Amino acid sequence: MPITGTGILSYRAQEGFSSLLQPGMRVIVPVGKRKITGIFIRWNDAVHPPAPEKIKEILGVLDEAPVFPQDLIQLWQWAAKYYLVAPGEMLGAMLPGGALREEEVLVKVKKKHAGEKQSPPAQTEKVNAPPTSSFSCLSTLTGPEQKLWACIREKKRVSLRALRRQFPTLVLPDALQRLVDLQLVEMQKHMRKHRAPREGLANAYLNVAEEGENARVRLSSYQQNACEKITAVLRAGDFRVFLINGVTGSGKTEVYLQTAQAALEKRRRVLFLVPEIALTHQLVAQVRARLGQRIAVLHSAQTGAERWDEWRRIARGEIDVVIGVRSAVFAPMANLGLIVVDEEHDPAYKQEEGPRYNARDLAIVRGQMASCPVVLGSATPSLESFAHCQIQRYTLLELPERVEARPLPTVEIVDLRQRQRDNAEDRETSRVFSALLRQALVDNYQMGKQSVLFLNRRGYASYLQCRSCGEVLSCVQCSVSLTFHLQGRELHCHYCGFSRQAPDCCPLCHEPELGGGGVGTEQVEEALLRLLPKVRVARLDRDSVRKKGVLSKMMESWRAHEIDVLIGTQMVTKGHDVPGVTLVGVLLADVTLNLPDFRAAERTFQLLTQVAGRAGRGEEPGRVIIQTYAPQHYSIRCAAQHDFRRFATLELRYRRNLGYPPYTRMVNVRFEGKNGERVQKAAEQFVARLTNRVVQNERGPTVLGPAPAPIERIKGRERWQVVLKGYDRALLHEVVRTVQEELIGQGRSPQLRIIVDVDPYNML
Ligand code: ADP
Ligand code: ZN
Fold first, then answer.
1. Which residues, in sequence order, are bridge partners of residue 586?
2. Measured between alpha carbons, how far is 668 from 759 in angstroms, rounded to an integer?
3. Each residue of 170-189: pLDDT tens digit?
4. Cα-to-centroid distance, 377 and ligand 1 (Å)
5. How confident is the model at residue 240 (pLDDT cuts 50, 70, 90)?
6. How confident is the model at residue 222 (pLDDT cuts 50, 70, 90)?
7. DSSP track, 12-37
8. Whole-angstrom distance, CA of residue 686 vs CA of residue 241
């Protein structure tokens, strides 16, 4: 595994194995010509089993005890069905990389040639090659075969899969056979460890200190109420979803911890999900300090093998509390008593590669299967979760006040349209900061307080444009403009990672007139240093914390007040609770608002509310200044008033009118390939088949498209999409599944990728 299209297959077990095998163990089985890792699910009790001679045998058993508890087998099957992916693919996303072994073919240079590097064959031939040496045949190789040989010779050993990637146009089996015949290379089968792709922020260094005191605080009446409601369900062993909507600093964590303790007292286990570990450092530390020693942390900076070690400890029952990022929803725990999903609105819960599952939603399914309460928490709940509360499917628990009656920060909105060219000494500085924000920054600094500046745009300028001919420099592989980074004066594509030196002249008209547009975090840093030359500033975005250890060090200095101003992208909106922060500036609230996405207003409201919540966590009250060109927009106004309910009412009305989730469900089917025409045609054929199904049913979904995706090209692949929207979830999925099966039946072209995204989040 994972093999696309692999489902549940039947095998025979030899006498020796059948006594060992228990459901949930890994086995090695043949599939076609390959050997792969699978999970043993159950003994076949089919009434008419396939003829025994047709069933292949299990080749090996990898475990002594199950690594996949029964609960998880059920969740796996549910998830594969719901997310419209093959069970094999789903399993690949569930198991940590270290667990999967896969057979691959290695192509190796034959021993006698191994020592030679680039030396010309003619020379070696004379010295030590026997007269029958294959080198004499080298001249008979065709051009592509020679290239292939040169590549293998240089690498000494290389997998067939890698060669296939490198020589997509070559008929590899034929070419390789020639090299084998000439005794240049040999092929060998071997089981390799499957390496799963690392997820986001892979380099974030983790240093979870044992901090935090053990003392129990006195709960506020709201906290008390929430704890009582949750523990009652927990003690009864029932399933129920709770949504804690608590303003920032209302003490949600305390509720999680106390209910978790109640679960542990009942000898049941706790699963704790967070959007990412590095920025939720404090929460992890608190969980460690309060919930004992039998804790496992699962995060994206671990290697597959490390995660696999943790996985087995959990499966053996040595762990009571698992805290982890989205893939931890698959932690092999039995006997769950509580599941917590912190910051449940966070898009990081949605997997955007492979099977596109949502860990928050799977947590709820898992809670139902385990019959335990599931607690979702957020200051800015997703509208999906909130709408479930309105129809009483979930229980809403509100924490409307900050602990110890600390006030919420005051929020001022600066209308950037009204901004006069105020008589700033420095035009560059006033381009970034309004007069109000400038003054506030200076005052706060002089009072010795800390400030946060938020702008959701990395780099120095989001594009370079020629002031003479208007050309905007864009990526060669993607239909997006390149971002200018000051470091090394480079242009970067944020989609494919392409980078190049920024040119001095326009590549089109050759005038030296390139200028930057769209302020990014690097430019904010520069402007701030012009305003306050002595300020101690740090920049927190994916570029600045790429190196191992940088992030945790930065957070440490930030907490120790060795940094006066922290500038950053949405990373600054998360987690860290620093009492010295009294000012938050939002440089341009419109960045997310203008995205072509029906969730743009929701994302804007969430980011603004979360970042505003960083201010005034200590004794001193906080102040927030939001700069925007859309000061009337309800997402900005509601965020300024800390009014989630009003925002939700307005936004839900809009969603209802336009038939968007949560009132409907969506599936986005994306077609990707190098050949634009073929991609378009595939999308059109898909729609033609789809409409056949849809018109047959009046509750059938609406089909939007086919249309080019908002970003039409990424990494040289053309992208088209078909969006389906329907009121009847089961029917919607059924329609897509049927068409999907028809297409698989036809055989898919390897040139074309079809990605089915159920409940899509990112539609760009
Ligand atoms: P939230 O997650 O809701 O933003 P936190 O859980 O981080 O808020 O709590 C904010 C701060 O208040 C933390 O430092 C926490 O230790 C403290 N706290 C929580 N509950 C109480 C309480 N009942 N009394 C005093 N302090 C509390
Ligand atoms: Zn690109």
1. 454, 626
2. 8
3. 677 778 888 888 888 887 76
4. 13
5. very high
6. very high
7. B--HHHHHH--TT-EEEEEETTEEEE
8. 37
DSSP label at residue 202: T
Q: Show the tokens assigned to 169.
A: 């146009």
The residue whose C-alpha atom lies closest to atom 18 belonging to ligand 1 is: 251
**Cα–Cα dist 434/421, whole Å:** 9
**476 Cα–ligand 2 center, Å:** 6
Rounded to the nearest angstrom, the distance between the alpha carbon of 699 and the centre of ligand 2 is 40
Is-contact 287 281, C-beta < 8 A?
no
The CA distances from residue 182 to 132, 148, 583, 680, in Å, are 10, 13, 73, 44
Distance CA 220, CA 405 (A): 10
252 ligand 1 Cβ < 6 A:
yes
Nearest CA to ligand 1 atom 5: 251
- Determine which residue's CA is closest to atom 17 belonging to ligand 1: 251
pLDDT-derived band of residue 155, with 50, 70 and 90 as boundaries? confident
CA dihedral 254, 257, 260, 265 (to 10 degrees): -100
Mean pLDDT of the chain: 83
Instruction: Kindly report the length of the chain.
Output: 764
Beta strands in 75-184 (DSSP E): 101-109, 157-159
pLDDT digits (tens, 9 = 90+) for 716-754: 889 999 999 999 898 889 888 888 877 766 656 677 888
Number of Cβ within a 10 Å radius of residue 448: 9
249 lines ligand 1 (CB under 6 A): yes
- Asked whether 258 lines ligand 1 (CB < 6 A), one says no
- CA distances (Å), origin 476, targets 125, 492, 521, 714: 45, 11, 24, 9
Cβ atoms within 10 Å, residue 28: 16
Amino acid at position 694, single letter: V
User: Of all residues in the chain, what percent carry a pLDDT higher than 90?
Assistant: 38
Give me the pLDDT at residue 38, please: 81
Q: 13-17, 129-133, 511-515, 699-703 — which is least confidently predicted? A: 129-133
Distance separating alpha carbons of residues 248 and 608, to the nearest angstrom: 12
CA of 750 to the centre of ligand 2 (A): 22
Q: Is 751 helix (H, G, I), strand (E, B) or coil?
A: coil
In tens, the pLDDT along 245-300 reads 999 889 999 999 999 999 999 999 999 999 988 777 778 888 888 887 888 998 87
Strand pairing of 537-540 and 565-568?
A: parallel
